Amino acid sequence: MARSSFRTKLVLVAGVSVAAGLLLSGGAAYVGIQRLGADAAEETQRGLRYASTEYLDKHIDNVAQHLSIELDRAEAELATFAAIQQQIIDHQEELQPVLDAAAKAPMLKDNLVFDPKGQWSQTGDAEPTTVTAWGYLHEPPEAEGEARAIREDVAQAIDDTALMDLLMPAIGRHGSRKLQIYYVGPKERAFARFFPAVPLAQTLDEKDPGHNGEVFWDHFFPSLVEGWTSWVGHKERFEDLARQITFLSPYDDAAGGGPIITLFQPLWSADRTRFAGALGFDLTLTGIIDYVEEVKLFESGFAFLAQDNGNVFAISERGSRTLGLSTTSSEGGGVSRYDQFLGKSSEAAIRDLKLPEGEAAESREIVLGGHNYVLELKRLAPFNVWGGTDEITEARWVVGFVVPEEEIYAALAAAQTAVNQSSREVLVYQVAITLVTLAALMLWLIIVSRRLTSSLVALSKGAGEIAQKNYDVTVPVETEDEIGALGQVFNQMVGEIREHTENLEGLVKQRTSQLEDANAEILALNERLKEENLRMGAELDVARRLQMMVLPATSELEAVRELDIAGFMRPADEVGGDYYDVLQGSRALKLGIGDVTGHGLESGVLMLMVQTAVRTLLASDELDPRRFLAIINRVICDNIARTSIDRTLTLSLLDYKDGVLTLAGQHEEVVVVRAGGEVERIDTMDLGLPIGIEREISDFIDLKEIRLAVGDVVVLYTDGITEAENDAGEHYEIDRLCGAVQRARGLGADEIRDALVADVMAHIGRHKILDDITTVILKRVA
Amino acid sequence: MEVSDSSYRVWYDPTNSTVYFEGSLRLGTADYEPITRLLHDVLAGNPPHLTLHMLELVFLNSSGINTLYKFAIALRKQGKTAVSVRGAASIPWQTKSLANLKKFLPTIEIDVQ
């Protein structure tokens, strides 16, 4: 159980980690390729759009240029022809002999024959050009049924154009593809000369009966001459006569010549005031239309050519269908016009199309039949056009390109397909690699885990044996890795446990004896420490005992009759050398209070010296308080010098006799609390000097007498009381002492003392006691 | 020349011949020795005048007072240096003890503000 679950976990954990890693890296690669593909597609699309726009722009410019060149060539030829003719008109008088001679030359002579049926005159087929003079250019018939003569002025005018027999064939045969070139005279002499020679009058009679009675211009091109004549007087219109070339709308030639367009250039009288006829070209549009229809754009793109009124006159069948155009052919003047208007398209996008107004090519995106198209438009150079009224306007043709967008972006679509294809492949590879790797790893993991777990199972079994207190187990160590090391350690530990279990008793004994040794050592050390401590404490013990042992006994104090006396001394940890004494002398009661500087044994010894000296002097009956103190000082000074004790002391000695307290020596103030509560503080600064500094102090010693009434209380104390500190470092101070005693003054000396000590202790609180605390309370009771 | 601790500072300023005492002195008797030596070193230079500036010495224990007394006696024996003490009446130990200095050294000038 344990074996299989551990191995399963191991295989599961490793397998899941590897699978997760592989899937993550595969996923990242797939996403990367997808993103790369998207980026590339965007970049390609931008590039293609730019390139295709650029291509269409350039191409449409080329087409426009080509068309312009075709038209320019025809215009140039017409202009040349017109210029020659205008020269002849301008210099007619001078050239008249030449013209007359030409008209008579057999090669150029026009033999017009009157046709009685059609009532017109026309040259025969053999002449280089056909001259036609319609009925209204003839004299009235002299007799019914007779031939009519051409009007004299008309005949002269025909003769004046005889040279055209030379010019027209030359111009007509070369250069642009002209179906017909012709000259038509001014309205009053509107005969026509045509090249190549055609039976014009017959054709027109057939196609347009009745025209013979009306002036050519008014019948075929009503108002056109009026349009031209309206230019008279406008100087700029006459600077370059070639710019007067006027185009008509394209139409199908009535004589079956296919789609044509007519260009006219008017001629003028020498003074440019009168219309002098016009030269015309019927230019075949087949070349231009074929060229436009053959323009190939991508797969199925096409071109078209339109007038700026939206009439499309050059477009392939398929193009026409794509743009939704329909032909509304209309008959007029013997010619059928193209009427394929963009505005009448079945496609909304084409109906609403606005032709460009600038010079540059314009690109649009439109939808035709549910498909996206790119529409490129470009205007050709402007030219004059007559639209059937007396106004001649300026017009421009428009070349258009229409290309399905999907063809432009065909490369992009191909690239995207390729990217999708390769990312699919990557995904498939990734999945395959993941599966194969996973399978291989699992196999390997199962093999390895079997090996690993067999060692662990052996260890686990061994541990189970130990739990059963069988310490004779060993586990086989087969590998040199950590598990092998674990096996070794296990075996070693089992050995130790075995050894320990067997030798437990001996071990306990050994340990116990070790502990006993250690204990003995500790006890010895402890003893030594105690000794050290004792030695260190001994000095202070001695000092404390010295100080306390010389204090007056309670019985001595109680023996005093007139005064109730209570004393208190509490030495500090480091003894401070305080002194007080009460001694009954032969004449008076002697009281002393003093404080040795410093702490410790030396202070205690000095205090003892003082006590002994006072007692000795009292015993020797020295009665003068001044001398008494001076002698004490000398003794102490000498002893300090001998013992090299660096201490001094303050000392006040008091004599009491019959209600008078005589005070000598410098110490703290003496506080007197009268029975009535008044407090008197007696300064002792002027009563002496510190003892043990100067050998001779007699001059500085003074006395002070204090009279005591019954109930008056005197307090003697050392600075251990007034300078007692609390935790805040504040001193107890004399004022508080006075207050405490004042409150307790009615009590006995013992109780006053206890009250004062309690108050001091309350002040000190938990703070360390820094100095000896000493006080003596006297109360006169009798 | 300076003797100092966390709670006190005693130093001599030769420019105005003044020994300054600052802080609170609660040393054991023997521990006043460095201060005694400082005072005697100052005295060894036989300055014509010496000021003991104690306006900032808020506490001096009896051992310290003893040290001052002994210095006063040493000054009296030397007899050359004029000494003045500047103290503050608001500091309790000074009102009590500075008067004694006059007894040990009558020429001392005591200026308690």
Question: How is this structure best described in words?
Answer:
The complex is a heterodimer of chains A (782) and B (113). Chain A is an alpha+beta fold. Helices cover 46% and strands 20% of the residues of chain A. Chain A contains 20 helices and 28 strands. In chain A, the strands form 4 sheets. In chain A, strands 1, 2, 3, 4, 5, 6, 7, 8, 9, 12, 13, 16 and 17 form a 13-stranded mixed sheet that branches. A 5-stranded antiparallel sheet of chain A has the order 11-10-18-15-14. In chain A, a hairpin with a 6-residue loop joins strand 8 and strand 9 (275-284). By secondary structure, chain B is α/β, with parallel strands linked by helices. Chain B has one domain: Transcription Regulator spoIIAA, CATH 3.30.750.24. In chain B, 37% of the residues lie in helices and 35% in strands. In chain B, strands 1-2-3-4-5-6 form a 6-stranded mixed sheet, with helices on one face. At the A-B interface, loops of A face helix 2 and helix 3 of B.
